[in-house]
């Protein structure tokens, strides 16, 4: 009976808050809500942020991170989780320890490094800790082009180099790799993401590139949608298609909020479809 009561898909984000509501934990919870899963959150960092940039940030102490993870593990039945902004090497380590201690299901690692406005969200020395401690725990990692370059430690220019980099990242111990195309601006027509799956099949998923600066939180939205689908038991290949379509609809159906890099429209995707889920 208890198991039945606790069986509704529950998802966890371990990340930073965005007071402006467009990225980080706020984007994650909005995405989870729209995908009809129950969203929970471990706050790793607090940012004072709006669409113009990050004005300040505060890292949460280890004891409080551990306490949040313990609270969730004691009560909830988390079926998938994602990481976002983790700030520094120490916090990457605290999160990796908690993810080893508790079973929160498949892990989506979004290796958030720099905000669209240019603020550092992960210190340089922490990249190696992500590689050593977090990637081996991940079911899927979702770097953008810039993050992928930092992980492999060299330039990635052509489509063949994107594919080779995904393979290199997979060899670090992650089953599935997605290199996101938002920063691959060579094509003005499309935004194409590359997917390399655990079974060695691969896929480019392309969608029309929208000419807009209202792309605050695109990466968070993709990774939290992916986690939401995985929590429902959807297989990885279908989950990535839904996540890409969800982000596309959220960028396309723009809303006018803030004066800078505006947020996405998290309720745009398949509104009638959602009503039926
Ligand atoms: N202008 C755009 N038009 C269409 N799709 C886009 C656009 N910008 C980004 N995307 C899509 O959004 C998703 C996230 O990609 P992106 O490379 O922007 O991630 P990110 O840089 O990690 O995002 P964030 O900076 O929010 O963390 C990908 O599916 C990408 O193809
Ligand atoms: C707390 C937090 N997490 C992630 C991002 C990345 O989003 P973006 O690159 O769109 O600014 C952010 N700005 N803030």
* Total domain modules: 1
Bin the helical content.
25-40%
CATH class designation: Alpha Beta
Q: Strand order across the biggest sheet?
A: 3-2-1-4-5-6-7-8-9
Q: What name is given to the CATH topology?
A: UDP-N-acetylmuramoyl-L-alanine:D-glutamate ligase
Compute the gyration radius: what is it?
Answer: 17 Å
Tell me the span between the first and last alpha carbons.
23 Å
Overall spatial form: globular
Low-confidence stretches: none
- The secondary structure category is alpha/beta
Number of continuous helical runs: 10
Provide the list of bound ligands, each named once: adenosine-5'-triphosphate, (4-amino-2-methylpyrimidin-5-yl)methyl dihydrogen phosphate
Secondary-structure element pattern, one letter each: HEHEEHEHEHEHHEEEHHH
Q: What's the β-strand tally?
A: 9
Query: Per CATH, which architecture?
Result: 3-Layer(aba) Sandwich
